[in-house]
Design a protein that fits this description.
The chain is mainly β. It has one domain. Helix content is 7%, strand content 38%. It has one helix and seven strands. The strands form two sheets. Strands 1-2-3-5-4 form a five-stranded antiparallel beta sheet. The termini are far apart. The model has no long low-confidence stretch (mean pLDDT 89).
Length: 87
Amino acid sequence: MPNNFFRIDQGDKLVDVAGGKNFSIVMTEQGRIYATGYMFWRYFSECRRNNENNEDYPFELRLPPGWKAKKIFGAEKYYNMWVTAEN
């Protein structure tokens, strides 16, 4: 996977990774979440974003304003993802 695959902000870095049957998710030092996978793209339509507006590219999963991810977890069954976050 190339260094710019998830297109994180300059100065930010990946600190956690999780995955499942057909997806991967990463968390950055700044508490942002990025993901891949068409099931996630379709399921998280309210909070996902990428410049291409297309499921074939990595996308950011945005938390509510003021919240930062602290830990991510993924599971193979049912395409589940869990995030612990703080405000």
